[in-house]
Amino acid sequence: MISLTKVEIESSRIYRDGDRARENAMLGLYIAVARLQESIGPDQRFTATSALTGEASQGHITGVWLEDATDAYTWLISGNTLEAPLALAPSDLSAPDTAANTDEIFLVDYGSVATAAERIKLPKQALSADEPSGHYAYWVGDEGVKVSMAINDETDLLDYDNTRQEDMLSNPPGDGHNWADVEYREELRQMAPSFPNFWKTLGLDFANLVGSQKLDLLSSLSMSALLSGSLDTDAWKEHFHALTPLSRAVLIDHTAEDGALRRDLSDSPQTEGSARRFNRTRPIELDSGGQGYSFHVYDAAAYSDVFPHFSIGPVMTEFLVRFNCYRDEQGKLTIKQELQIELWNPYAVPIRASHKLFVNLDDMPDFEVIVNGDTYVVQADDYFKDPYGDERGRGPHIPIGTEWAAGEIKWFKGSGRKKSSLVLSSDAAARSEYVLDANGNEIDVPDPELGEVSITVRLPEISEAKGNRFKVRLWTYDTIAEYSPQIEYISAEVTNDTPTLSSSGWLFGYAFEMDDEMERWIDGSLENSADPRLMDMSEVDYADADFEYWSDEPADNLGSINLSGADSFNTQQHYALYDLPTQEPVSVGALTHMIGTGPQMLGNSWGSEANEYFDKYFFSSLPRWHEWTLDSLPILPNRYMEYFLSGQDEIEIGEAYASAGLDVDIMFDVYHAAKYMMLRGAFNINSVSRGAWRAMLSGINIKEWTPEDGSGPRELKHAFFRHSMHGQAADTLPDESVATNNAFSRSGVSLTSDQVDALADAVVDGLLLRGYPFDNLSEFVNSGIIEDAIELVAINEGAENLGLIKHSPAYLTQADVMKTIAPMITPRSDTFRVRAYGDVTHPVTGEVVSAAWCEALVQRTPALTEPVTGEMDLAIDPYSIDTEKYPLGRRLKILSVRFLSPDEV
Fold this sequence. Notes:
Elements: H1 2-40, E1 45-49, E2 62-66, E3 74-75, E4 104-108, E5 120-123, E6 125-126, E7 134-142, E8 147-148, H2 182-189, H3 198-202, E9 243-244, E10 248-249, E11 252-253, E12 260-261, E13 263-264, H4 273-279, E14 284-285, E15 291-294, E16 315-327, E17 333-344, E18 351-352, E19 357-362, E20 366-371, E21 374-379, E22 397-398, E23 403-404, E24 409-414, E25 431-434, E26 455-459, E27 471-475, E28 479-483, E29 492-496, E30 508-513, H5 519-522, H6 613-616, E31 617-618, E32 641-643, E33 677-680, E34 683-684, H7 690-696, E35 700-705, E36 714-721, E37 748-750, H8 753-770, H9 777-782, H10 785-792, H11 797-801, H12 814-821, E38 825-826, E39 831-841, E40 848-864, E41 890-900
Parallel strand pairs: 8-9, 13-31, 15-18, 34-38
Antiparallel strand pairs: 1-2, 2-3, 4-5, 6-7, 7-39, 10-33, 11-12, 14-15, 16-17, 16-30, 17-24, 17-25, 18-23, 19-22, 19-27, 20-21, 20-26, 26-29, 27-28, 32-33, 35-36, 36-37, 39-40, 40-41
Helix pairs in contact: 7-8, 8-10
């Protein structure tokens, strides 16, 4: 009985010690979560691992940085406190590949990682300085620097009709679409990865995962061993610091002073005009078969020199107007005139004139016609205006329905203000009509058989200094673009030596053309670059000073526009540069195809403030015309969006086209959508995990890709689409070889697996060289860190060896990469794995008699902590936090807690 009693007492003590150890571990966990709330709750906090700072031997300690800081504010490990946030730094820790002494404990050990160097070893913290009876320790792991795994490709489950009903107001093509159409779903896969490319890090073939796995059931990294492929049972341990089941983030605009929620760019009356017009653009049926896009014009009231703008129309690449003055058979002073223009469709899709496209000549200078000493003043542009038109003086026009193929350049000519001759075409004739005197009378010219006849034209100098540069305007129901010649034409006198010949010859003309150095129109890093689609091209150096353009002497501009050649814009060339939406985008990176002062601004290093769009906006892709409720939430086209509805008080979806504003809290409101959503699969761009970046930079991968040329279905790997909406329709596909004849006919480029690895390594090297986090996405993009990596590892070497034009679609650019990763990236992390330890020590010997480990997954959410002053305004406060009212920022939520056995640590 005595022996039995001793066993029971000892057993009771062991259980009691075990409970106390678990309590101490939970205490460590509570302290960690409290520190986490204080440290990362506010919007303007940024996280990265210590490896970013050069701590090679202690690279997995999570640091927190304040805005614009180069040094960490604190490290999220036990030993640091609110009062002493830097009491313990990574450099203070002993090497993880050595054994722990009695004052240390492993929070991450061989149960989680494969090598000693990847372990996490921390000093224990005593519970009581006077009478140590136990210890605790905690480590906060940053899950945002890892790539997520638990996201399915749900594209084929999108089968609802999100098209506006015909009886609802009007039904413009931009109002949603029917996801039952397979074509829409196939295009969607070209805009962003169908699911995170974690398979690249694990060494699996993505084709084995597509359609055969319920990836969203991966609740732990160890479950990756169950995936299809030749993955070893413990292989997941090699990727503990690179992969995570799922990382989420709050959609924060880090360019705001104290942080704010991002705004939803999805179709809404509140969406900023130009971006909304771009998003809602849809193709139309062309008369000749196939689909194209009708003309759009600028929103003139909103037009400025700030990104972005939007219009659809041709670009004028060359202009010529020429004249002759002579005596016709009736003895009248006659003027012959002709207009020639070259118009380029810079888009990778067909476009069509949906209205008459007028060519207006404004402010052409007066010139004088002198007949045997009598002088008559002529206003040149009067001869290119319809006298029966409206106050805008409509000029010659290109007919409705005129079509341009992708990248096509067309030539048009024609003349005259007589109504029957206003149409421009490829075979229209020049027009002659009488010159009138100041009283509107015809002018008689003496018969040369009765005496000498002289017809001379006196032309003024045309220059910016004189203030008389003329303007050529492409105009439909409003202005598409305006051009003014950069040439300064000299003054001149020209004489018709054969004044009775009316059927041939020209006396003078004015001409100018676009610089044919294509780099100017696609490489925004050049000093003189410009977007060729700008509305106001009058101040653009349209023809470079070294370019052989038309003469500054009017008497030399008598020929026709050259229609052939290898080195200039002409009708034999096709240059497809920009894409247009077939459906609402899911990546902010798609806006690189909008119009800015420079070409392809968004996503490239020259984008400057344009790149703030990555911080300020997102695409919720919430369906507006498909009926749904909070009990039947629809699958979202943007697979990197996730609903966040827990803890919200009263949730109202709102009217489909609601225009509410900050004071009304609904899901469809552009300001509040981010309160009800989170970024799923969020990736912190300050990660220096090479495995994670290899997954992020693996591009678009589609198991069965079906191009329009009938060459599919086939497997597409590591593709980066320049023209993601029309990736299937291009003449040359991403996985086809780059050649001199397909630089501008491509929809993008594909990389090899080795190129992806090299690119990822170069990006990480660039981050390590910087040594501290980027605190917003635009700063990351403007730094050109991906652009430099592309250059460093010679991704475009094949195109360069062929002499192809830099930044043509045959080149991989930073903007191409940003378009692919934009739906996932953030400059901070909001998901954390907390490991905590607790033990109980013998009161006499100090030896550990019981130990416990626990682990929690902690998530930062859009919801606010309790205000320290005033009452919470549920409509306004979540959008933009008052840091004095909410010093702890947004609320953390513990998603799960579990105790770990020593073998699991």
